[in-house]
Amino acid sequence: MSNQKGITSPVQKDIWTFLQEFTPARIARGHAGHSLPTKELLLFQADHAQARDAVYSSLELATFQKKILHPTIVLTSQITERTQYLQRPDLGRKLSDSSNNTLQVLPPQSYNICIVVADGLSAKAINHHAIPVVNGLISVFQTYGWSVAPVCLVQQGRVAIADEIAVALHAEIVLILIGERPGLSSPDSMGAYITYQPEIGITDERRNCVSNIRPEGLNYEMAIEKIVYLLREMSVQKISGVNLKDEMQNRLEQ
C-alpha cells in the first residue's frame, strides 16, 4: 500500500475486515510485519486500561439510594479492600458482621423476592445499568402483587452473598445484579443470577443466569422480560438452576 508520495505503508489490511461491521470483537485488525499496526495496538491498550479501571471502580451508593424507587439497605462483605477482593473470593461471599447484624434487627417478615445489587468485578457496569433494570422489575413485581424486600446494595460482593442475604430476609427467591468480568470490548457488562429457595453454601447449578445486560448486548427491556419469565417459572415449578429449562423462546414462537 502506498500513500500519495509513493511511500509504501507497512500496514497490510486483513481480507476479513468486513466482519467488523457485525461485531465489536477485536477481529481482522490487519498487521504490520508480524505485529499489529500501531493504531490497533494503542486501541488494544486503551481497552485494556478501561477493563482494568472497571475492576477497580466503586459503587455510586448515593445515586442508587436516590434513584431506586424502593427502600434500600447498604451492606458490605467481609472484604476490606479491593486487592483482597481479587485474592479472596471466599470473603466476598460472606456478609460482614456489621451487615449481618443490620439484617438481623429488621422486623421479621417474609418476601417473595429479594433484589441484591453488588459491584462484583465491575462496579462500572452496575453504576451504568442497574437502576433502570431494578426500577423496571419493581414496577412489574407490583403488578403481580409480589412482596419485595428492601433492595440490598452490597460493596465488595460476590454472587453467593445473595444467598446469605435472602436467608436473613426470609425471601423465597433472590435475584442479584452484579458486574461481570470486564472484557476488552465490554467493560460494563452486568449479569443477573436468580435462585429459588436460596440457602447458604449452595453452588452455581442452583442458579439461573442472564448475562451481558447492557445496551450493546441484552438491552434493559429484554433483560427485564427474561428475568420476569424465569421468576414466574420458578414460582410455579418451585425449582431453579439446571432443573429449570428456559423455554421462553419456544413459547414466543408458538
Mind explaining what this structure looks like?
Helices cover 39% and strands 18% of the residues. With 254 residues, it is α/β, with parallel strands linked by helices. It folds into two domains: 45 residues, no CATH class; 193 residues, Rossmann fold (3-Layer(aba) Sandwich), CATH 3.40.50. The strands form two sheets. It has a six-stranded mixed sheet, with helices on both faces. It has a two-stranded antiparallel sheet with strand order 1-2. Strand 4, helix 6 and strand 5 form a beta-alpha-beta unit. Helix 6 crosses helix 8.
Short overview:
This protein is of the alpha/beta class. Helix content is 39%, strand content 18%.
Map the helices and strands.
Blueprint: E1 11-12, E2 31-32, H1 38-55, H2 61-67, E3 72-76, H3 82-87, H4 89-92, H5 97-104, E4 111-118, H6 123-144, E5 151-155, H7 161-169, E6 171-179, E7 190-196, E8 207-213, H8 220-237, H9 248-253
Parallel strand pairs: 3-5, 4-5, 4-6
Antiparallel strand pairs: 1-2, 6-7, 7-8
